[in-house]
Structures are given as structure tokens and as C-alpha cells.
Design brief:
Blueprint (H helix, E strand, L loop, with lengths): L6 H9 L18 H12 L10 H14 L7 E6 L2 E11 L9 E6 L18 E3 L2 E3 L7 H17 L7 E6 L10 H8 L1 H4 L3 E4 L4 E3 L5 E10 L1 E10 L3 E2 L8 H13 L9 H14 L1 H12 L4 H7 L3 H6 L3 E9 L5 E2 L2 E10 L5 H12 L5 E5 L13 H14 L5 E6 L5 H6 L4 E3 L4 E2 L12 E3 H20 L2
Parallel strand pairs: 3-6, 3-7, 7-17, 8-18, 9-16
Antiparallel strand pairs: 1-2, 2-6, 4-5, 5-19, 8-9, 9-17, 10-14, 10-15, 11-13, 12-14
Length: 475
């Protein structure tokens, strides 16, 4: 996963200000259902689901067994895997609603995790360790916290006899963390849309931010995410002997192209989500930066305000498509003129902007017919952001205000990418919402010693359980 921790985190970390010092995270002490959740979470974290050595299929089977034990009939549990990717399977389960005409709500979480080498970690990454108020282990946050919370909620609903108005569907999928892996969310959206068809989906992609004193600053709700796409820049040349250099040199052509690219910024643009983010966050921050954010939300062509906001890399990225060189190759011998030179340029594309638009812009900026610009890897879908309607925002705010009074719910756009892009592209609006707060450091997500605060996980679990119930009952 590429969960965005936006620039407000940097502001909070630098200032050390407790913006909502009187507010504490709600406690789940005494919850009789917590031990069962802890056991489920432990089993999921301790099931290795890395691409190299793990198995999402095993993890999905274990969660399916828990759902079956809670009373879900076999026809409402779908385990899936393809013959060419037997270890990259997943699970879909359904809690049937009472109104067949009401569109379902889908709970989407990926169960694969980033690679983790035991020798590099302080603790075994695949043993759940609770220490000093934190759970440690690979996937404790990304994304087994949500996968476990969603599965646990489905179990609790069934045991309680909850009969919602609309179906509640759960999809646990593999392949989100590794580009070359089988992607379960994409496969479901294209091959078994009927299994996951829904009015909208909840997914990872936004959490809550804690200040330097473990107090909540805001809770994010993600509506839209930037799209990942690599491009190959390449130039070729007949080459020749290095003792007879000429100006027409493949490496020089590539170097000039990259220099032009380094000086270029895509223009700023706004979606409803980012406009709401900058206007509301500007009020929180105040000062020159806050005023610039508010001004830019009103008028994205305000270059003076943009210059101030763009000083922060995260805000700069939220405002536009970004492209950056990440890999270089060129030449074939130390004593020969290069016959080929190339670079990988990684772009994060603003929602709704096509891959071809970005490619043609890059070619125009490079302005050298000898340098080709070609998309590499699978072409990513580029859907527009889903609408942040009252039916989505209302319940999210209602439960948040009850659990964390005075803490605002702020729409945000991820500058990374999640599996939500596949669902959004195929007509299932997908939103990031977790109710899990974390510190600005991101707690080792994708890195060493990944962790999540025990209190944050338990409160997020409660938040999701409550908000999904509201969504499931809404008219």
C-alpha cells in the first residue's frame, strides 16, 4: 500500500502543538468481544502473506473458517485462486440484507504484505508482539488492521443476528503490494463483478492523524487517489568508437531530456476532494500557509498562493500530476559511443487525467524527436474521483463526532495508489476510511518494525463496526 500521510503531519510534528489537547481517543476497555478479535488479528498477522514466501490463499482460508464458524453458510463464502497463482487467492463473503433492491456496501482490504527480512527487524516480523502500547509485526497496520476489523465486524453482525437493509460484502484480496503479482481486486472487478457489486466500497487510504501528544488532530476520508504509471524514456544511436566522439550522443540526448523534465511542473488542479481538503486544513493550520491553502482552494490559478503551498512536497503532489526519474541505464562498453540510453520516469497521475495526456505532455516538454516516451508495465486505469456525497460523509462524521468530539473529518486524496483504482474504474465508488489514528512517522509502514498503537487499532475496529452498520441501514 501507498497510504498518504499528508503535509499536515509535518506541520504537527514540527510544531509539537496539541491542536485538540482536551480530546482523548475513545476507550474500548471491558469490551467482551475484544479477545476474539485479538485472536483473529494475531492469526492474520502471523500468516505470512509476502509474495516470495507466503500465501494469501492460506490467510483467506483461515478467515473463511472463522466466518463459517460464526454461522455463514457455504453459499455466502467464496474462496478463490487461479491455477497459475495458487498462493495469491482471496475471499468474498456476504451478509444478506432484507431489501434486495438496496445496493450492497463492500468492505475491501488486501491481505498481502510487503517483504520483511527477519535479520533486519528488531522482532520477528511474523510474530505479533504487543509492547509498550503497540502491536509490532509486518501488516499490523498495512493492511491487516482493516482486514481483521472488517472480518471481525462480519462475524459480530452474524452472531448478533443483525439483519441489515442492504447486503454487506467482504472482499479480502492479494496483490496490492507488488506490481507483478496477481491482483485479486482487479480480477474480481473484471471476472466476478457479481460477487462484489455494490453501491460503494470502503477501503484503506485514509486514517487519522495524532499530534505529538497522542491527541487526534483530524480523521481523514479519502475520495480519489493518484494513479501510478511508469514511462520509458529511450534514445538510440548507431554508436561508434569512443576515440571519435560526435555531438549526436544517446546519453547526451537523454540527459538533456531529463534536465528539461526536472524543470517542469504540471499545472495545479483541484477536485472536490482536494478543494475541501485545502480549505478545511487551511483553517486548522492558520498563518501564511493556511491562508494560501484557503486562497488556492478558491482559485487554483492563484500562482502566489500555489508557490507557498507547493513548498511542502506532499501538498505540491496533491495539487497536480507529478513525474520523476527513478532509474537510468545506457551504453554498452567503456570504449564505445552509446547505442542506447534510457530512463524510467515514475508518474503519479491526478484522478481523471489520462495516461496518454501525460505521455504527450512529457514528449512536448522533452521536445526531442530522438527521445521516445512510452508507457511501461500494465496501463493503469485513470478514473475520476468518486463523489463525496452526504450518504458517504454523513455516517462517517456522525460516528467520528460521537467518538472524538471536536475532531474534524477532512476529505483527502491519496498521492499513492490502492486497489480502489480498479473498483472506481469499473463503477464502484471507493472511499478510504479506517478510523485508525497514527503518528506522523507512519509507524514503519513498508519499512522496518511496522507497528500500530493498540488503542488506535481497537478504536478503529469500533469505528468501522459502527459506521458500517449505519451505511447498511441507510435509505
Amino acid at each position: 500500500m501507498s497510504r498518504m500521510r499528508n503535509a499536515l503531519a509535518s506541520f504537527v510534528a514540527a510544531s509539537g502543538v496539541a491542536l485538540f489537547a482536551s480530546t482523548t481517543i475513545a476507550s474500548t476497555a471491558g469490551d467482551p468481544t475484544e479477545p476474539a478479535f485479538r485472536a483473529l488479528y494475531k492469526e492474520l498477522v502471523e500468516t505470512n502473506t509476502t509474495l516470495s514466501a507466503g500465501s494469501c490463499t492460506v490467510a483467506a482460508e483461515r478467515m473463511a473458517a472463522r466466518l463459517a464458524a460464526a454461522g455463514y453458510p457455504a453459499e455466502d463464502i467464496h474462496l478463490f485462486a487461479t491455477p497459475d497463482h495458487p498462493r495469491e487467492g482471496g475471499l468474498v463473503a456476504v451478509l444478506r440484507g432484507r431489501d434486495p433492491s438496496a445496493k450492497a456496501i463492500l468492505l475491501l482490504a488486501h491481505i498481502d504484505v510487503v517483504e520483511a527480512k527477519r535479520a533486519d527487524w528488531t522482532r520477528d516480523p511474523f510474530t505479533l508482539v504487543e509492547e509498550n502500547g503497540y502491536f509490532y509485526g509486518r501488516g499490523t497496520s498495512d493492511d491487516k488492521a482493516m482486514a481483521a476489523s472488517f472480518t471481525d465486524a462480519m462475524i459480530r453482525y452474524r452472531k448478533e443476528g443483525f439483519h441489515p437493509r442492504r447486503d454487506i460484502k467482504l472482499a479480502l484480496t492479494c496483490g496490492e503490494e507488488t506490481g507483478e503479482a496477481f491482483n485479486g481486486a482487479d480480477w474480481l472487478a473484471t471476472q466476478h463483478r457479481d460477487w462484489i457489486d455494490a453501491g460503494f466500497a470502503l477501503n484503506e487510504g485514509a486514517g487519522g492523524l495524532l499530534d505529538g501528544h497522542d491527541k487526534p488532530v483530524y480523521l481523514g476520508i479519502q475520495a480519489g487517489e493518484k494513479v501510478y504509471q511508469d514511462f520509458r524514456l529511450e534514445t538510440t544511436n548507431p554508436g561508434g568508437h569512443s576515440s571519435r566522439p560526435v555531438p549526436d550522443n544517446a546519453i547526451y540526448h537523454l540527459a538533456a531530456a531529463l534536465t528539461r523534465l526536472s524543470a517542469f511542473d504540471f499545472p495545479a488542479q483541484m477536485s472536490d476532494t482536494t478543494r475541501a481538503y485545502f480549505s478545511r486544513t487551511g483553517v486548522l493550520i492558520g498563518g501564511d500557509s493556511g491562508a494560501a491553502m484557503i486562497a488556492l482552494a478558491k482559485d487554483p490559478t492563484n500562482t502566489a498562493a500555489e508557490a507557498i503551498v507547493s513548498r511542502d512536497p506532499s501538498w505540491h503532489s496533491m495539487l497536480r500530476t507529478t513525474c520523476v526519474a527513478t532509474l537510468l541505464d545506457g551504453g554498452h562498453a567503456t570504449n564505445a559511443l552509446p547505442q542506447r540510453a534510457g530512463a524510467n520516469v515514475n508518474c503519479r497521475i491526478f484522478p481523471g487525467v489520462s495516461v496518454e495526456t501525460v505521455r504527450s505532455t512529457l514528449a512536448s516538454v522533452i521536445a526531442d524527436p530522438k527521445v521516445t516516451v512510452t508507457p511501461s508495465g500494465e496501463l493503469s486505469p485513470t478514473p475520476p474521483p468518486p463523489p463525496l456525497s452526504a450518504r458517504v460523509l454523513g455516517p462517517a462524521e456522525q460516528v467520528a463526532h460521537d467518538m472524538w468530539p471536536g475532531v474534524p473529518v477532512i476529505p483527502t486524496m491519496s498521492t499513492g495508489a490502492t486497489d480502489g483504482r480498479y473498483l472506481n474504474a469499473r463503477g464502484i465508488p471507493t472511499y478510504g476510511l479506517s478510523g485508525m489514528f497514527s503518528e506522523p512517522s507512519r509507524s514503519g509502514v513498508h519499512g522496518l518494525n511496522e507497528r500500530i498503537a493498540v488503542k488506535s487499532l481497537m478504536d478503529g475496529r469500533t469505528y468501522l463496526y459502527r459506521v458500517v452498520k449505519l451505511y447498511a441501514e441507510a435509505r
